[in-house]
Amino acid sequence: MPAPIRLRELIRTIRTARTQAEEREMIQKECAAIRSSFREEDNTYRCRNVAKLLYMHMLGYPAHFGQLECLKLIASQKFTDKRIGYLGAMLLLDERQDVHLLMTNCIKNDLNHSTQYVQGLALCTLGCMGSSEMCRDLAGEVEKLLKTSNSYLRKKAALCAVHVIRKVPELMEMFLPATKNLLSEKNHGVLHTSVVLLTEMCERSPDMLSHFRKNEKLVPQLVRILKNLIMSGYSPEHDVSGISDPFLQVRILRLLRILGRSDDDSSEAMNDILAQVATNTETSKNVGNAILYETVLTIMDIKSESGLRVLAINILGRFLLNNDKNIRYVALTSLLKTVQTDHNAVQRHRSTIVDCLKDLDVSIKRRAMELSFALVNGNNIRGMMKELLYFLDSCDPEFKADCASGVFLAAEKYAPSKRWHIDTIMRVLTTAGSYVRDDSVPNLIQLITNSVEMHAYTVQRLYKALLDDISQQPLVQVASWCIGEYGDLLVSGQCEEEEPIQVTEDEVLDVLEGLLVSNLSAPVTRGYSLTAIMKLSTRFSSVNRIKKVVSIYGSSIDVELQQRAVEYNALFKKYDHMRPALLERMPIMEKTATNGPSEIVQTNGETDSTVLDTKHPPTITQPPSQGNDLLDLLGGNDVVPVIQTSLPTKPPSAGGELLDLLGDLSLTGAPPPAPASVPSVPMSQPPFLLDGLSSQPLFNDIGTGIPPMTAYNKNGLKIEFMFERSNPNPNIAVITIHASNSTEADMTDFVFQAAVPKTFQLQLLSPSSNVVPALNQGNVTQVIRVLNPQKQQLRMRIKLTYTYKGSPVQDLAEVNNFPPQSWQ
Amino acid sequence: MMRFLLLFSRQGKLRLQKWFTPLPERERKKIVRDMTTLVLARKPRTCNFLHWKDLKIVYKRYASLYFCCALEEQENELLALEILHRYVELLDKYFGNVCELDIIFNFEKAYFILDEFLMGGEVQETSKQSIANSIEASDMLQETMEEYMSKPAF
């Protein structure tokens, strides 16, 4: 058989191939030749064949049939064979191959070879890809070589030991004695690899760390070496742009960092040298900056004195102004790490950081954005937000989602005023509306409902935004929800803040219907607009138009829309008397620190029973536009009517909730079942109430030190108020009323209503029952929650209705004697 | 430590691959694909650092070849640039004005040089001269064999 072609020849031939197919053909031919050559156990050309195989492997072709051949090469006596054999082993074998273990014996022999270059090959292979078993078997040999005086082998043994320790950490102990005088070597290769070995040991084992700190006095040794490197003259062998062995310097700095971390003595011992390096290093080239960078990282991580820390941050500040992009990037990354601990120092560089937002480089922009968000605080919020919003406008799409979330978070924490907050949200929604995250929609809605005085302004701005652009789904969803809720404010044209726009009901309905039919609207968005249209049926007068729209969608292909429409239809047809209550203005949603949905689930639980409890319909308070007998009671517009917990209190995806509840009603057509479980609040609550909540019960008969008071006592009916502060939100006072009846007959159909002044918001939960038993045999309890953000004096008007001995009784009263602790 | 070092051309052809952790073949191929895609997509005057998974990627272009390495979180990126540069200098000294073709036709030599400079993802020797001497001595060992056999080994 003719001699196999030489490596370079093969390479040249393959490179002449003009197509992938041609190349593949050549390779397959050659592989076949190589395979048969392997089968013939040809020693002479094995090396050549494996080399060719490695080349083909690099091109991406399979080469597994060469694995055993590599072993044979390693076992050969010829140096050339060993060289290629070990290279092949490193490229073709990984830990999963069984042949791997067969190497162990060869490596062991070669570790003891007479030629140092063969020993070197063995050490290198073991140190790059030795498996745990191999490491265990050969650790002893490595340890022996670590003690040799041959610096060529010693440095390789050190790195091999590092690999062994990484693979089998338990073996660390056995290398300890050999490290004793590693640092007294003159050879830089050995010094460098020794420092790496010591670093690895100190990082992995706190015992080792303290041993090296105290017993070996490593810090002074390292300081001395570093000092020599800096102070000594020019050394051509290790010089890089005028700096002596930067690789070693950086490694020493890193080891110093580990030694100095949370240790005062060590940190003090290295203060001087760190200051020296920080001030004397030449910064004109990358290499000097690499050393400075490592120095800064070390200073920030150890217990350095404050002067040194300031020096470090100033170096980073200088980096920020450097022309070199890499250095700016590295500075931003480091500042991001230190911003938590040295916030004020970093704030000084805020303007430079904000300028980096305009950098052309994508990596730098991202870092600058993250750092900018970390620097936002109450003082600089307005200025920073301007810059960040400008950034949001002009940045690449990959940033928009993160930037939008960041803006929302920052605005929530530090908003100087509600109007500013809403303006900021609007700006984000209109410029980056489609990148906003899904959970921001409910968060925003909740925020908007909480800013009671801004409702008119908000809905106007959202409406105008909708007119411009309906493609950004989160914006459209928030806008349609708001229009559904506050459509009456929109049409009435009242707005203190801005030029009120004149909008008619038809125009609003046009816009919402437009959303329903537009191709740009996602299914979720359509759901929002349908619900919004439905809600407007209690706020607008053009009910017929709404009825028509709703009935059309009763046959929509989209199942979700269809279901909603069918149920809304049912609402019109059979349950029209319930419609106003159901579609009433939402109460304010509280923000829970822990878990939003659990709070909402809780009130849903309450409302479930409220709605099902139709035998005793809670007196529904009509929304203002339809007149309100309580308002009449209180003689004017200065009181906000009671908001009975109507359903759903969850944001619009609560169309689901609506459906669930109506499911019983409309589909069966049967009269609603008797209240399945009328909870006697606060004792028995539906199970899911407690699931997501923290262990603090929100309703607690036992007042927290606030004395109970008697609110009403007439004709045998006595009503007592018990107080409790709502734990998540101190602005909310929770009052539990206890109604008792000292007469000889029961009071049935008992209904309690309350109204509060405008600055408060009130929420009435369902009563425990509607019968106040006679002769004080039991109580009816009911929970009232009052939101009092302005901490004004609480006053309340109550209205009581009940049937007593067959005749209806009604009474009104004012409650003014609230104890100060209940509203302060 | 450095996790891997790759050299590839502007067309995405791999010229050298050094892996410092054990990875199956399929995984290696995927990483090479990802790296070439990421690095070749970078615009000319952007910085030399990227983030990929939990690693820092440092790359530098020398003529028609991209040198790309992956570092763990605590490594110094600016120093990594110096490491890449040092490797190029070593190649340059060995081949005399090194170009891509040298590395294509003598890939095994490029590996040998790399193995004298780095081991297990760490720098082994900081003196250029020392490395050059070792390579020369090893080559001599090989040549002796070849002279003995009176034909090139491969």
From TrEMBL, chain B:
Gene Ontology BP terms: intracellular protein transport
- According to its record, what are the GO cellular component terms? AP-1 adaptor complex; clathrin-coated pit
Identify the main location: membrane
- The reply to whether Transport figures as a keyword in the UniProt entry is yes
> What CDD domains does this protein's entry cite?
AP1_sigma
Protein's UniProt keywords contain Protein transport: yes
Mention one GO molecular function: clathrin adaptor activity
Q: Which residues form the AP complex mu/sigma subunit domain?
A: 1-140
Q: Which InterPro entries match?
A: AP1_sigma, AP_complex_ssu, AP_mu_sigma_su, Clathrin_sm-chain_CS, Longin-like_dom_sf
- Which membrane topology term applies here? Peripheral membrane protein
Give the residue spans that cross the bilayer: none
Keyword line: Coated pit, Cytoplasmic vesicle, Golgi apparatus, Membrane, Protein transport, Transport
Where in or outside the cell?
Cytoplasmic vesicle membrane; Golgi apparatus; Membrane, Clathrin-coated pit
Which family is this protein grouped under? Belongs to the adaptor complexes small subunit family.
What does the record note on quaternary structure?
Adaptor protein complex 1 (AP-1) is a heterotetramer composed of two large adaptins (gamma-type subunit AP1G1 and beta-type subunit AP1B1), a medium adaptin (mu-type subunit AP1M1 or AP1M2) and a small adaptin (sigma-type subunit AP1S1 or AP1S2 or AP1S3).
PANTHER family found in the cross-reference section: ADAPTOR COMPLEXES SMALL SUBUNIT FAMILY (PTHR11753)
What protein name is recorded for this chain?
Answer: AP complex subunit sigma
Q: Which organism is it from?
A: Denticeps clupeoides
